[in-house]
Structures are given as C-alpha cells and as structure tokens.
Amino acid sequence: MKKNAILKVFLFSGTFLLVLAGCKNDEKKDNAALENPPTNKGVVYKDTVSLLTAQNHIRNYLNGCDSLFQDKIPIRSYSINKSDIFGILGVTSVPNCTYDHCRVYIGLTAEYKFKLYMTPTVLKVTRNSNGSIDSTYVDFILYDSVNKRSFVYDLNAPCPSTCDKTSPLFTLLVR
Fold first, then answer.
1. Mind listing the pLDDT tens digit for each residue in 50-91?
2. Labelling 4: which of 22, 105, 159, 175 has CA 20 to 30 A away?
C-alpha cells in the first residue's frame, strides 16, 4: 500500500515535464506521427537515462513482482493523457503538443530504489483482418540526434523525502 502511494507521487509530480517538453503551441499536430516522428533535435534533458538503464530497472521490477505475486504482475505502467496532466496543473486551455499521451513505467534498481521512467506515445491506427480500425498508443522512444543515444525520462524525487506529510493521501494508515 505504501509503495503504491510512493509510485503515485512519482507519477503525478514528474508527468508534466514530458508533456511540457513536447508542447508546441504554434504548430499543427502531425497526424502521421509514426511516419514522420518528431525528434528533440539533439537536446537531451537533464532528467534522463539511457534506454538500456531503464530496461534493466524495469526488468528488476518485473522479476520482483513475479516472485511476490506468483506470475501476476499487478501494474507494469500507466498511460496518461495530456489533458489530465494540464488539468492537475490548473491549465484551462490545453495547448497543441507533439504528443497527446505519455506512458510511465515502474522500475527498481539493484539497491531496491523505485524509479519511474517516462516516454511519450504516438497514435498508431491499423485495420485488422475483419476490416475494423484498431487504435493504439505505442511508445515513442526519444533519442539525441547528435549522439544517437536512446533515452527516457527518469523521475526520481521519491516520497517521503519530497511528500506533503499533511496530505490526506499521505496520512493514510498502513494495515
């Protein structure tokens, strides 16, 4: 229960960083995001880790869940819509952004510290065998176009060191 509260704090405190990084108020949205994916033009923001590091930590989390929950991983990641993020921040007019959603994955270091890794998602529309249309948001792994380094955002300001200890969400009793 306490771990879930910590994960939620991670999720909401850092989610808006990715959305803001992808926002462009003066550009039309690209409906062919998968065919013409945007890049960050060589900029790697400071709160990032390599894709390989994130994969290793996510694997640690999945392996830990596998042993605790008998082959049933309760939560692997969260998908978050940009309007939810801006709503939490009190922004009343949601700007046009390169990405409409993001996904946050849960990781665990070798030292048993929880991590949250965030990546934008893009809409993939396909026609299935019976002719109906399937829409899925797929992860869009960012990269530094100068060094060709794949990366994800690393959100690590964990609670309790950063918590509002008076919040009704923090003061819940653990059973």
1. 999 999 999 999 888 877 877 676 788 999 999 898 899 999
2. 22
Q: Are 132 and 151 in contact (CB under 8 A)?
A: no
Within 10 Å of residue 116's Cβ, how many Cβ atoms?
28
Give, in order, the Cα–Cα distances in Å from 111 to each of 3, 8, 61, 102, 127.
Answer: 15, 20, 12, 27, 44
Grouping H, G, I as helix, E, B as strand and the rest as coil, residue 103 is strand
pTM: 0.69
Question: Which two tokens mark 40?
Answer: 């960050």
Residues in Cβ contact with 135 at an 8 Å cutoff, skipping those fewer than 6 apart = 123, 124, 125
